[in-house]
Structure formats: structure tokens, C-alpha cells
Design a protein that fits this description.
It is built from four helices and no strands. With 81 residues, the chain is an all-alpha fold. Keywords: Plasmid.
């Protein structure tokens, strides 16, 4: 991974995967279905599926509502290399 562009894209994909993994884990830990989360947030099950599938870039507001729906806490951090 000596190519800076490849490294940048790899880190971006890794961060997106980590977010998706955290969303699915939060829902599973809460023993909720996608439909359950959707109902609490006020959206559709298919929207939750797209969110958990990494098909959309969620807003902070959406992440906050998802966290609240699953009884989780949203924490965002910036890390300077």
C-alpha cells in the first residue's frame, strides 16, 4: 500500500464498513428488526436496509435517530494522523 491514492480509498472504505458494522450490531444488540428501527425513526424498512447496506451516506441527524431507536449512543470522532 505504497500508493497514496489507494491508501486514501482503502481508509475511506474501511471507515464506511465500520459504520455499517456498528449500525447492524446496535440493532442486533437491541434485538430489533429493520422494520422495528424504521418504525421508531419514522421511515421505511427499505431505507434502513439501504443505510445498513452502505448504499447511502447518512446525515448526523439520521445516525442520531438510529442510535436513539436502538438505545445506543452516537459518538463521532476525528483522528489526526
Amino acid at each position: 500500500m505504497n500508493d497514496p491514492e489507494f491508501q486514501k480509498e482503502y481508509e475511506k472504505a474501511d471507515a464506511e464498513f465500520a459504520l455499517v458494522e456498528a449500525l447492524v450490531k446496535a440493532r442486533a444488540d437491541a434485538k430489533m428488526s429493520q422494520a422495528d428501527v424504521a418504525k421508531r425513526i419514522g421511515t421505511t424498512q427499505s431505507a434502513i436496509a439501504r443505510l445498513e447496506g452502505g448504499k447511502v451516506s447518512p446525515s448526523i441527524s439520521t445516525l442520531r435517530r438510529y442510535a436513539e431507536a436502538t438505545g445506543s449512543k452516537l459518538q463521532i470522532s476525528l483522528i489526526h494522523p
